[in-house]
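Entry 14: structure prediction run for MINDY deubiquitinase domain-containing protein. Input pasted below.
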Amino acid sequence: DTPETSARNQRKEHYQIKHIRWYDENKHGIRKSPILTQNANGPCPLLALVNALVLSTPAGVDTALIETLRTREQVSLGLLLDAVFDELMSGRRGGAAQQLPDVGELYAFLVTLHTGMNVNPSFTKAPESANGALSIHPDLRHQPGGFEDTREMRLYSTFNIPLIHGWLPPSESRAYAAFERVARTYEDAQHIQFQEEELDNKLRAEGLNADEQRLYEDVHVIKEFLTRWPTQLTKYGLETIVNSLKPGQIGILFRNDHFSTLYKHPRSEELLTLVTDAGYSSHEEIVWESLVDVNGQGSELYSGDF
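Run finished. Output tokens:
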């Protein structure tokens, strides 16, 4: 296929729509909202973003995005992208989109979101961008996991929805110190492990100097951390997310290489993720899944009013 044909075919892909009833703290009552359920690609960043945009839109405010979804049982990718783009350019999400030098670049980025997005989680305090702005949402009172400040992250941030992760070591731990010294991000941590074999060989042959010994120990601590928390969420990270989101706030959680729409219960302050699995699309009563531990063993399914 030519690029033009591929683009046309992509725009014809469809997402199923589920209409949920859920308790909105800001409305102090039940409201009905249309959400997307996942297709064969799994919970992609576009799906999480669209659902976060829908749920964070105040009750009674009609947007092109909500109107597009409300009147349908399924929506084509092309129609969905046009509605999301309209939402961005409306100014309701702030003026970041209008300030971009190339608005066409933003639309091209939206097209790629339905297949995934490259993110590089940071294990230490979120790095600052070149202009001194944090790459995470400014409303967060405490700081959960951030990401390397890349072009994709800057474009994603124009939607003004917190994108966070909880793959974090406690700040006083050996793991945090190791990450801060030699591998602040996930990509850094992958690269640093390539030095392990070389250090092993030198240790056996002639021994290591003080700097090499520290690096050798740091690599092992980092490997142990990554092995211990394979779901990309730690107990400390989960606590940090709970403390960072405001009651009733919507965010997007990166975990297990997937993106999920996140909600903080307005009363109990428990974390909940939006259930978008296609297998539950016909079950109106299943809306939320609790996020209470790192491996999902204690999770429970909830209706829209919990």
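Notes: Residues 139 and 294 are 25 Å apart (CA to CA). Will compare against the previous run tomorrow.
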